[in-house]
Each structure stands twice: as C-alpha cells, then as structure tokens.
Design goal:
With about 100 residues, this protein is mostly helical. The protein has one domain. It is about 55% helix and about 0% strand. It is globular. Bound molecules: iron/sulfur cluster (2 copies). One iron/sulfur cluster binds next to helix 2, helix 6 and helix 7.
Length: about 100
C-alpha cells in the first residue's frame, strides 16, 4: 500500500517552484499531449501534492519523456505552470540520483 509523506512536496520544491494545487483533474493535458503521456501531468502532480513519493519514483521515465512543448500548459484552464513543475521534478530526480 502506498504511504503518504506530507513533507515530500518540500523536497520536490527545494529551491524551485512546484504548484499544482489549482489542477481540477479535467484531463485536457492528457488529451492534448503529443507524447501520449497518460500519467503526466495530472496524475503525477497529484501524487506530489499528496506526498506519495513511491508513486512518483515509479514515473521517472515518464517525467523525462516530456518534451516541455507547453501544449498542455497553454490549454490548461487552471493556469497550472506544468513545464515549470516538470523541471522541478527532474531536478528532484537528479538530486536523488546524485545525493545532492
Ligand atoms: S489541463 Fe490543467 S487543470 Fe486540467 S488536468 Fe491538466 S493540469 Fe489539471
Ligand atoms: S509539455 Fe510535456 S506533458 Fe505537456 S503536452 Fe508537451 S510533452 Fe505532453
């Protein structure tokens, strides 16, 4: 069973922004993504917000598959800064890999 850790989002943020609180799970981003990424952004962002680190760690490949094309962001009705969040997640994975 997945364990939630409330301080996880602070680790993802560190020196950068991560904000997905406005996401209303509408699915526009998933429908429009040219890479067909089903779990990014909304599902993985929700895991971060809920502190579900284990679930996020399973999605490393997905996070690095994003083209940062901003198509989803430009069409997001909630104005979520999706690519900025993806960059923060990549930096989180890098810190985790290199223990920095
Ligand atoms: S388009 Fe925006 S509000 Fe809709 S699910 Fe994606 S991130 Fe959330
Ligand atoms: S920025 Fe990433 S998640 Fe968004 S549409 Fe482009 S490839 Fe998909």
């Amino acid at each position: 069973m997945a364990v939630a850790r409330p301080t996880f989002i602070d680790e993802v943020r560190q020196s950068e922004q991560f904000n997905a609180a406005a996401c209303m799970n509408c699915g526009v981003c998933t429908a429009i993504c040219p890479m067909g990424l089903e779990h990014l952004p909304r599902e993985i962002f929700r895991y971060v917000v809920l502190g579900m680190e284990e679930e996020v760690l399973k999605e490393q490949e997905t996070v690095f598959s994003c083209l940062l094309c901003k198509l989803c962001e430009e069409n997001c009705p909630a104005g979520v800064h999706i690519t900025e969040n993806v960059r923060s997640l990549r930096h989180y994975f890098d810190r985790k890999a290199f223990r920095i």
